[in-house]
Amino acid sequence: MGSRILVVEDESDLAELVGFNLQQAGHTVLCAHDGATALAEIRRQRPDLVVLDVMLPDISGLEVCRRLRRDESTARLPVVMLTAKGAEVDRVVGFEVGADDYVTKPFSPRELLLRIDAILRRVGAAADEGPQHIVVGDLVIDVPGHRVEVGGKEVNLTALEFRLLLDLARRRGRVQARADLLERVWGYAPGIETRTVDTHVKRLREKLGPAAARIETVRGVGYRLRTDGD
Q1: Mean pLDDT in runs of 10 for the chain (230 residues)?
Q2: Nearest residue to 25 via CA among 8, 46, 2, 9
Q3: How far is residue 202 from each of residues 69, 91, 184, 197, 221, measured CA to CA in Å?
Q4: In 10 A of CB 133, how many CB atoms?
Q5: Mind listing the pLDDT tens digit for each residue in 130-153?
Q6: Residue 131: predicted pLDDT
Q7: d(CA 58, CA 61)
Q8: In a 10 Å sphere around its CB, with 0-12 CB exposed, 13-18 middle and 19+ buried, how is residue 99 labelled?
Q9: Separation CA 17–CA 25 (nearest Å)
Q10: How many Cα atoms within 13 Å fall on the side-chain side of residue 226?
Q11: What is the C-alpha separation between 215 and 199, in angstroms, rounded?
Q12: C-alpha dihedral over 3, 156, 185, 63, to 10 degrees?
């Protein structure tokens, strides 16, 4: 069964191309050509995923993503950025505002579909994998509810930050290489070099507050979520 996907793109030809390929893959597609319309559509009926252009005529895609992440009802809505701005700093900013993936123009429609499908599979499988509640000291992860608490206070994470923390928590006490995290959490192919993991771990630590020290950096390898016995 396909998903409901909102394509936010001000170039009509490109919106039609993306929409056509998504429909051919069995998804239901809605289109918006500016940020205000996109936000209104998301409030009206929340989609399963948003494909979001950065350069929009009114509100930038980055600001749209920020607003989605600030709203509890859309904080974990998967967002794929689609943009001509492909420099590393642009990708880092995209991930910092909460994007789940970042695809640069010109792009392969097939690659875009594969990236979208990978995100949808991860979101759909998260609630069915392993324990439904994970407790590590004062850190509590409610898997089906996509909620995280530290010391009894809820921490607002993006969908990608939640998946990263959950992946570390399910393998707590064991070192996870950056390459392995990229494959499992982001769905990247082996061999891709990126600072994406480090950027997201930094943001995750900032949000976890007193529990930040549980995410341990293992130099030259990756990260580990420490348990009380470590």
Answers
A1: 87 92 92 94 90 92 91 85 75 82 87 88 62 87 87 88 91 90 75 76 93 92 84
A2: 2
A3: 17, 16, 18, 9, 16
A4: 11
A5: 567 889 999 999 887 788 999 999
A6: 66
A7: 9
A8: buried
A9: 13
A10: 11
A11: 13
A12: 70
Token duo for residue 155:
């921490």
Instruction: Kindly report the pTM of this predicted structure.
Output: 0.63
Say if residues 103 and 112 touch (Cβ distance below 8 Å): yes
Q: In three state form, how does the secondary structure of the chain look?
A: CCCEEEEECCCHHHHHHHHHHHHHCCCEEEEECCHHHHHHHHHHCCCCEEEEECCCCCCCHHHHHHHHHHCCCCCCCCEEEEECCCCHHHHHHHHHCCCCEEEECCCCHHHHHHHHHHHHHHHHHHCCCCCCEEEECCEEEECCCCEEEECCEEECCCHHHHHHHHHHHHCCCCCEEHHHHHHHHHCCCCCCCCCHHHHHHHHHHHHHHHHHHHEEEECCCEEEECCCCC
Which domains are seen in the chain, by residue range? 4-126 (3.40.50.2300), 133-225 (1.10.10.10)
* Parallel/antiparallel/unpaired status of strands 139-142 and 28-32: unpaired
The answer to whether residues 40 and 74 touch, using CB atoms and an 8 Å cutoff, is no
